[in-house]
Amino acid sequence: MSNSKPRLVKDYEKLTEEIRDQIKLRYPEGFIHHLISFTDKEGASVSAIPLETDDIYYLVRMTKQEAATIIEEEEDYNEGYLREDINLDLEEKPMDFEDIEEDKELVEIKDK
Questions:
Q1: How far apart are CA 62 and CA 71, in angstroms?
Q2: In the chain, domain spans
Q3: pLDDT per residue over 91-105, tens digit each?
Q4: Alpha-helix residue ranges (DSSP H) falling in the chain
């Protein structure tokens, strides 16, 4: 993580659809096991999942119960796992040049 990126703490419900899609791809097996805890500026203990984009480091605020509920109610997940057809649909969305380059590097690593 780059220290120059702004950190943004945000509730899942307030995220754009694009950021929610990135979260689905990053956490295809759900969120509960990826929650981290931190103390917010008011001194309260908060749990969140991290997501780093090109411009921002997000901490998406949610409790364990909220994480479980989101996965249960989200149509793109089936029995706690991102549906494979959804995974492919999200990956096929247009990406910026940097994302495409990263994906090529991942394919090259897998092929070796």
A1: 12
A2: 7-111
A3: 554 444 344 333 333
A4: 17-26, 64-73, 84-91, 97-111
